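Chain particulars:
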Amino acid sequence: MNHTEQAETTIYLSLDASTMVASRQVHIEDIASVFCSQPDIMHNVKKIKLFTFHDNEQGQSVVNALAVIGEILKYDKTVTVQNIGSQDCVVYYRNLNEGHKRTGKIKALFLMVLAFFGTAYSIMSYNGDVGAIDLLQDLYFMFTGLDAGTTDAGYKFGILSYCVGLFFGMLLFFNHGLNHKKADDPTPLQVQMRLYERDVNDAIVVDSAREGTSLDVD
């Protein structure tokens, strides 16, 4: 039996776990990577529009992989779609104009000042709980044989050395804030931030599913 079989076209879809967009109109290429052996199909699939944010300032939405596959099959029912990425994507929309960028910088500066004084207060509280000042006085007496006074230059130098050592010790431990990191591994702070981001995304996905607000198949 002689017949010609047309090769099946497969589209590979890798949905991101979360992403941020600057446009109200969200297309497949904004939330996923797409690969197909036929460039024209791949290009058209990337440009498929999924939904539009109604708020002009900011918003968030959850997109299920099945909804994306459904939109692709509406474009071409003969293709096969395989998702090798996340099952859900949390899409954040932010209007990144100049006004919002300036506001973002002001908020970042405020958070830096808040974090600075909050951290300073925490360190001072810790030093008070463990008796760090008494320890420095004992060390001063051990090396000099004299009782430490608040006006003694050596005692002040000891406190200054402790503060400087604490600062550089935190930089080395967290491996963060230096131009050249001592290792290519993620810093403990980056690891905690990624874990927090993943937990937030999971919570948004669950809440969206319970409220029925996620973009899913009909």
Summary: The CA atoms of residues 68 and 175 lie 40 Å apart.
